Amino acid sequence: MTKIAVLIGSLREASVNKKLAKTLESLAPNGTVFSYADLNLPLYNQELEADFPSSVQNLKDLIETADGVLIISPEYNRSFSGVLKNAIDWASRPWGNNSFKGKPAGIIGVSPGQTGTAQAQAHLRNVMQSLDTNLLTHPELYISTGRVFDDNGQVIESYIPHLRAYIDALVSHSTKNKTI
Ligand SMILES: Cc1cc2nc3c(=O)[nH]c(=O)nc-3n(C[C@H](O)[C@H](O)[C@H](O)COP(=O)(O)O)c2cc1C
After folding, report:
1. Which CATH superfamily is domain 2-176 in?
2. How far apart are CA 87 and CA 85, in angstroms?
3. Which residue out of 79, 83, 111 has the highest number of ligand 1 atoms within 8 Å of its CB and is therefore the one to mutate?
4. Alpha-carbon distances of 121 from 55, 135, 161, 164, rounded to whole Å
5. How confident is the model over 88-130, as pLDDT tens digits?
6. Considering only CA atoms, which residue is closest to atom 22 of ligand 1?
7. Whole-structure pTM over 0.90, yes or no?
8. Is any atom of ligand 1 closer than 6 Å to the C-beta of 162?
9. If you measure from the C-alpha of residue 111 to the centroid of ligand 1, how many angstroms do you get, rounded to a whole number?
């Protein structure tokens, strides 16, 4: 079994990034289990570190017990979402106990803009590299909403091979570079 912790940078029920996660889950190789993180966390405040909120501890445990991490974010103002940054900041703490260290991870996302989260992903890569995450570098997918989901919200058939190649690569990267 390969366990993938999934962090989605949108809290919206109707989120297209959640839909992307579910689509990748349905295309993942047999034996892959997606575990979805709840990123509805308190805003980071160093004073709270003395008594870690249980929701944050749950996030850290989810990441640390996973073989790999899939990070999915919309693009907000040419970067990734604040919801996601807050979660990453929490999971990187306390000092010396960064849950992402050495962890295999992939970055992906979907937004309506023509560049399909390219800038959000670039910012996110920068952050995750600083946390010593073992990032999947290829393939990259920059997904504009209309290229992957039709007007009824159904995944567009011709895009499925790209998604399958992506999740295959992440699962393979995660099993080859296990830290647990
Ligand atoms: C504050 C804010 C800023 C946004 N900035 C961008 C942007 O820079 N580029 C882009 O393509 N879409 C941008 N959008 C559109 C979102 O990416 C889009 O609504 C997306 O569907 C949100 O993801 P979700 O459906 O997973 O919630 C922005 C939306 C919001 C709310």
Report:
1. Flavodoxin domain (3.40.50.360)
2. 5
3. 111
4. 25, 12, 21, 19
5. 999 999 999 999 999 999 999 999 999 999 999 999 999 999 9
6. 74
7. yes
8. no
9. 6
